[in-house]
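Field log, afternoon session.

UNIT: design team B
ACTIVITY: writing a sequence onto a fixed backbone
BACKBONE:
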């Protein structure tokens, strides 16, 4: 796979330099670690996110007003170091505590937890919400083992709005956990992405194959099948998503159709059209629909569908203003 890079070992450092040149009025780069913070911090609970590079615009793209205050950036598909997380948290802490939000992957869990322990010595209070929206990755009785994918967007959005409202760390954490508990996603892979330093694909699929439920790093899904027409494919994904989420007639949801890297907006809108029709036929209200590329895997082909089941509280936080390089409301 062709990539526009220099030395593969330098891609994250050079990407970060480019980010800072593009957003120098909004971002500040920390000197000693690969962390970025919002230049205009507020006197409130701080929100820190992060994870491996390679999923752009997550995670740096959600640093801004009404969203995250700082991001800890890891190497490609690798968790940020505990020291990076620690320094980002220290830089954004206003004395009211810091909430960590990140996808539920072993490396991230280990390193963010280690950072939280280090921050205790600095009298920085932290709490954590791990995003667990991928319904295929574990059964409902083990929901806390599920992976985090594009549902990060809903969870970070709610958290940022709750913090901006001036809630306490405990209150922000509780409403963020509620958002995570009401967020459900499923994806499909059409083709792999490749890791810059190796040039190797993250998985293999035959030209006429797709995998339902595959994770964003190539984690196993629920079924391999031949390529299906868009409506038939969306029907299968939505059947599984509605069954797992228990979203039903009379409920109201926010929808995100997220591209994984190389799937065109034309294709994503065709999927979104079918999602809207299914929800309408089932009497499920749609509060908002978003179609974009937020959580990607290099040039991976495919998409995910996420539902946030909303009540009046979650709708208010979802609708609150937000302004980051890759997300605005």
């Amino acid at each position: 796979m062709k990539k526009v890079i220099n030395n593969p070992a330098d891609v994250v450092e050079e990407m970060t330099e480019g980010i800072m040149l593009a957003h120098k009025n909004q971002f500040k780069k920390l000197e000693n670690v690969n962390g970025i913070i919002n230049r205009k911090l507020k006197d409130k609970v701080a929100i820190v996110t992060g994870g491996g590079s390679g999923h752009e615009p997550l995670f740096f793209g959600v640093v801004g007003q009404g969203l995250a205050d700082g991001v800890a950036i890891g190497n490609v598909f690798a968790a940020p170091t505990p020291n990076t997380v620690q320094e980002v948290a220290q830089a954004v802490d206003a004395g009211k505590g810091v909430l960590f939000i990140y996808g539920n992957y072993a490396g991230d869990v280990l390193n963010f937890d280690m950072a939280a322990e280090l921050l205790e010595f600095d009298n920085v209070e932290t709490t954590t919400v791990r995003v667990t929206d991928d319904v295929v990755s574990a059964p409902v009785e083990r929901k806390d083992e599920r992976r985090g994918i594009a549902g990060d967007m809903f969870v970070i959005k709610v958290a940022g709005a709750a913090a901006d409202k001036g809630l306490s760390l405990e209150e922000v954490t509780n409403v963020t956990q509620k958002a995570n508990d009401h967020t459900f996603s499923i994806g499909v892979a059409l083709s792999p992405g490749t890791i810059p330093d190796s040039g190797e694909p993250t998985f293999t699929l035959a030209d006429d194959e797709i995998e339902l439920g595959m994770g964003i790093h190539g984690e196993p899904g629920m079924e391999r099948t031949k390529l299906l027409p868009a409506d038939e494919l969306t029907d299968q994904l939505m059947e599984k998503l509605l069954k797992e989420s228990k979203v039903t007639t009379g409920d109201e949801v926010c929808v995100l159709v997220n591209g994984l890297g190389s799937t065109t907006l034309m294709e994503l809108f065709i999927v979104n059209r079918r999602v809207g029709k299914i929800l309408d036929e089932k009497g499920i209200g749609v509060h908002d629909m978003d179609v974009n590329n937020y959580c990607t895997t290099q040039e991976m082909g495919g998409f995910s569908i996420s539902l946030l089941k909303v009540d009046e509280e979650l709708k208010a936080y979802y609708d609150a203003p937000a302004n980051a390089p890759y997300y605005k409301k």
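LOG NOTE: The chain has a mean pLDDT of 97.
NEXT ACTIVITY: expression trials, pending approval
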